[in-house]
Amino acid sequence: MSSVNEETMRRFVDDVLNGRNLASLDELVDPDYVYRAPGEELRGREGLAALLDGYRSAFPDLEIAIDELVSGGDATVLSFTLTGTHRGDLLGHAPTGHRVRVHGMVRSRFRDGRIVDEWELIDQLSLLQQLGLMKMED
Q1: How confident is the model over 29-48, as pLDDT tens digits?
Q2: Which residues have CB under 8 Å from 39's CB, separation 6+?
């Protein structure tokens, strides 16, 4: 089952995240999908589509590179690098034009070959620093 889950995750990254094909959500994501990140929880394919649209608005050239993908049982863990240029509103911040490179990880659990829930952590401090929205004190 692990190799099936890894293949589903790779297709999700290639087709949905990088390929911008939200129609693939029906095939790859369970109707009971739940997304969690610090301070955030979204439910269903519609919630995921809205989240992805928000990222695309802020970073139209957003790309996700798979750094490592491991699986076991009904889950995968993906380490990734996100790159993009800040060209749209992000959490109330106007576009900066800055190019970012941010690392993150997501644990995905699968049911019947589809992603049913995810926990994601992104290096938000690095993102805010690269956008010039947060400075580190000496």
Answers
A1: 999 999 999 999 999 999 99
A2: none
Tell me the fold of 2-130.
Nuclear Transport Factor 2; Chain: A, (3.10.450)
How far, CA to CA in Å, does 34 sit from each of 16, 45, 85, 125, 126?
A: 17, 9, 28, 24, 26
Q: Return the half-sphere exposure (C-beta side, CA atoms, 13 A cut-off) of residue 71.
A: 18
Q: What is the predicted pLDDT for the residue at 138? A: 52
Closest listed residue to residue 103, CA positions, set 76, 77, 125, 122? 122
Q: Which of 20, 3, 28, 53 is nearest to 118 (CA)?
A: 28
Secondary structure string (H, E, C) spanning 32-83: EEEEEECCEEEEHHHHHHHHHHHHHHHCCCCEEEEEEEEEECCEEEEEEEEE
- Mean pLDDT within 76-103: 96
Q: H/E element holding 104?
A: strand 99-111
> How much is the pTM?
0.91
pLDDT attached to residue 54 = 94
